């Protein structure tokens, strides 16, 4: 592999181009009409215009991207995340064009992308999944039958929803029917979809995920990331190692991840997601992401492994050059996501010109971004401007460094999530790592109400 | 008769239906009530409703489906019948 086409934009395209260049390879960018001035276009050795600004007419246009690879004489394609990154048909199209796909096989993408089949793989290797209904239930009677089987308390959740909204907790069958009606009505109102599924209630749940690397024959893990702080299923801040995780649970999720990947002969970088019951230490497989993830740099910070360079080497056909014993994590790393959103207005997206951009730097501060003064945040793509990643020998110093780095960051022209992150870092519950998957949304609601009442 | 312009508060891509498989929220000649959704604008992977400010009849759309709109741009005209 000599010339890699990066089928993406924004900060991840910039990140991938850097890894390509670090390996002495050439990078080809693709871009839409809205991204003519974007840094990923300038940084590449060649760039190909693939279409109109809406993603469906450019970054999601498989034919246009394969054609760009052909005309630019690329011999590999890296999908990044989002867009076509977990589309088996894209991976197939890349391979059919005799190009290397920097990722897993199309079969692995399809298998792990299908929730029921992925749960089947977990079952095969003895990894638990959250007990509950198989998808949405037909009615309250079926919900009651499932609840009787898995045991109370249970959570009724909106099939079309996310975050904490629409969740009803039910303690016994006597109240289930009323609660089901309320949950379904709430779900209809909030998500335009009244379907409900039933799950065992995990009151104090954490979202912890394991980074894996495989070459199709052998898998290693690069330890875990704590990702519980989410708003509407979007991660806001991630850290590694996961704080307040029982050692047996930590080892358990690492081993479960290896078992899952070995079972399917997983190739490339991937992430195995778990829900951890913080009270019991039990863990449950949720899903596997068959791509690079936004938060990969914190893992790079504690392991010293360039995950994207590893992906490129594996795609080129090299066997995995690392053994598990080579991976010794050091210290703590935190990632802060800087989005072009207005936290004071329900996180409304905030497009516009970037009139001033000052990025943090200095010891153990890394910024992965596409933003620069004179750049433009267009309305067409996601709101991620960049990520501030800090490393330190321990969590307290990492927190202090995160505060220092955010203080140095200055973005003018669009609203950003910086101020919200500054306040978040000052919270006692964050300093002591006493949080779960519901904490951030509850806290945001309280602070919004506090402002409204003031 | 008074014509009212329905404006989008945010820039982005304008859609007349909630998803590609569904019928449009409103067609020309349909009646609307104040607060009713007549379209959505996709902005940075978020969807913002564009709602009629007055009740009346949809006279015409000023932007085609999937057209780009600027913040504050009128997308339709509603006749309030007054």
CATH superfamily of the largest domain in chain A: ATP-grasp fold, B domain
User: Which oligomeric state applies?
Assistant: heterodimer
Largest interface: A-B, 12 and 13 residues
Q: Report the C-alpha radius of gyration of chain B, rounded.
A: 12 Å
What is the class of chain B in the CATH system?
Mainly Beta
- Can you give the helix content of chain B as a percent range? under 10%
CATH superfamily of chain B, by name, is RNA polymerase II/Efflux pump adaptor protein, barrel-sandwich hybrid domain
**Cα separation of the termini of chain A:** 60 Å
Can you list the strand order of the major beta sheet of chain A?
Answer: 3-2-1-4-5
Strand-residue proportion of chain B = over 45%
CATH topology of the largest domain in chain A: D-amino Acid Aminotransferase, Chain A, domain 1
CATH architecture of the largest domain in chain A: 2-Layer Sandwich
Q: Are there runs of chain B of 5+ residues with pLDDT below 50, and where?
A: none
Supply Rg of chain A: 22 Å
Total domain count of chain B: 1
Number of helices of chain A: 15
Share in β-strands of chain A: 25-35%
Mean pLDDT of chain B: 92
Strand runs of chain A, count: 24
Order of helices and strands of chain B: EEEEEEEE
Helix/strand-derived class of chain B?
mainly beta
Helices and strands in order, then pairings?
The complex is a heterodimer of chains A (454) and B (82).
Chain A: E1 3-6, H1 10-22, E2 26-32, H2 39-43, E3 46-51, H3 62-71, E4 76-78, H4 88-96, E5 100-101, H5 106-113, H6 115-124, H7 140-150, E6 154-158, E7 168-170, H8 173-191, E8 196-200, E9 205-215, E10 219-226, E11 230-231, E12 234-235, E13 237-240, H9 247-264, E14 267-277, E15 283-289, H10 296-303, H11 307-315, E16 332-339, E17 341-342, E18 348-349, E19 352-353, E20 356-358, E21 365-369, E22 376-377, E23 384-392, H12 395-408, E24 410-412, H13 418-425, H14 428-431, H15 439-453
Parallel strand pairs in A: 1-2, 1-4, 2-3, 4-5
Antiparallel strand pairs in A: 6-7, 6-8, 9-10, 9-14, 11-12, 13-16, 14-15, 16-23, 17-18, 19-22, 20-24, 21-23
Helix pairs in contact in A: 4-5, 7-8, 12-13
Chain B: E1 3-7, E2 12-15, E3 31-32, E4 37-43, E5 46-51, E6 56-61, E7 67-69, E8 74-79
Antiparallel strand pairs in B: 1-8, 2-4, 2-7, 3-6, 4-5, 6-8
